[in-house]
């Protein structure tokens, strides 16, 4: 007489999989990964939910809406900027801070445009601004000069990086092709552009460093001239 085998004896044991709890950090990380791989247009509540294996409605426990998601993505990226050096000349410290921010934004090509378009300012953005201001104040800037110089630094970090990414992509917007525009810069119509382009080349790294050096020299000059008692 044969004995019945229990299910546990005839089947391999099941391994239980514990799903990591959903959190705001996980939602933002999934949205950032989606934007990095497929572009910002691919980011939607449904697509982020699919990436996490949950219904889109589950995300609303952690982000209020699409705007909150986008603002959180920007601040999360800025929060990963390298910390500025604590020692050394202020120009070296500020330069390292700016270069680190630039390099990190290049790794997330969607971020500079979103950062300049969104009105919200998150805590990571505030920490970045506070760090820049701290370096400028330690250099001898007055509060007013530090305020003005900080805005110039922010423009260089975000706007220059945005322009660089657009030039690298070869397009500045719908129907706009950079090569076509430059090819039409004939000596008759645009003599100065044509003369410049005949010998000049785009070198994004060199241009970024050139503008950064102009900023540092200009700030140093302003400290000694504009902030004189």
Description:
- This protein has 229 residues and is mainly alpha-helical.
- The protein has 2 domains: 20-63, Homeodomain-like (Arc Repressor Mutant, subunit A, Orthogonal Bundle); 82-225, Tetracycline Repressor, domain 2 (Orthogonal Bundle).
- Helices cover 64% and strands 2% of the residues.
- The chain has helices at 7-10, 24-38, 45-52, 56-59, 66-78, 90-106, 111-117, 123-138, 143-169, 178-183, 191-197, 204-225; strands at 171-173, 176-177.
- Strands 1-2 form a two-stranded antiparallel ribbon.
- The chain is flat, with a radius of gyration of 25 Å.
The CATH topology of the largest domain is what? Answer: Tetracycline Repressor, domain 2
- Which homologous superfamily in CATH is the superfamily of the largest domain? Tetracycline Repressor, domain 2
* Overall pLDDT: 86
Count of β-strands: 2
User: What can be said about the biggest beta sheet?
Assistant: 2 strands, antiparallel
Order of helices and strands: HHHHHHHHHEEHHH
- CATH architecture verdict of the largest domain: Orthogonal Bundle
Q: What would the principal axes of the Cα set say about the shape?
A: flat
Helix-strand category:
mainly alpha
The CATH class of the largest domain turns out to be Mainly Alpha
State the low-pLDDT regions, or none.
6-12, 171-176
Strand order of the largest sheet: 1-2
Radius of gyration: 25 Å
The amount of beta strand, in percent, is under 5%
Domain unit count:
2
Q: Helicity, in percent?
A: 55-70%
Distance between the termini: 107 Å
Quickly count the helices: 12
């Amino acid at each position: 007489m044969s004995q019945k085998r229990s299910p546990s004896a005839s089947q391999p044991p099941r391994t239980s999989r514990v799903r990591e709890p959903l959190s705001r950090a996980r939602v933002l990380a999934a949205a950032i990964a989606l934007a990095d791989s497929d572009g910002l247009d691919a980011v939607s509540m449904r697509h982020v939910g699919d990436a996490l294996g949950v219904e889109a409605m589950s995300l609303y426990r952690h982000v209020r809406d699409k705007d909150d998601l986008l603002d959180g993505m920007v601040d999360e990226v800025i929060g990963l900027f390298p910390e500025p050096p604590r020692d050394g000349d202020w120009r070296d410290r500020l330069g390292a801070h700016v270069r680190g921010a630039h390099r990190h934004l290049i790794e997330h090509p969607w971020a500079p445009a979103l950062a300049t378009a969104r009105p919200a300012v998150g805590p990571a953005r505030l920490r970045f601004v506070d760090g820049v201001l701290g370096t400028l104040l330690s250099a001898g800037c007055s509060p007013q000069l530090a305020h003005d110089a900080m805005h110039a630094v922010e423009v260089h970090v975000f706007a220059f990086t945005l322009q660089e990414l657009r030039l690298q992509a070869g397009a500045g917007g719908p129907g706009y092709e950079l090569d076509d525009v430059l090819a039409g810069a004939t000596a008759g119509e645009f003599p100065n552009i044509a003369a410049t382009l005949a010998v000049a080349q785009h070198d994004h790294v060199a241009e970024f460093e050139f503008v950064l050096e102009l900023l540092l020299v200009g700030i140093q000059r302003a400290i000694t001239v504009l902030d004189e008692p």
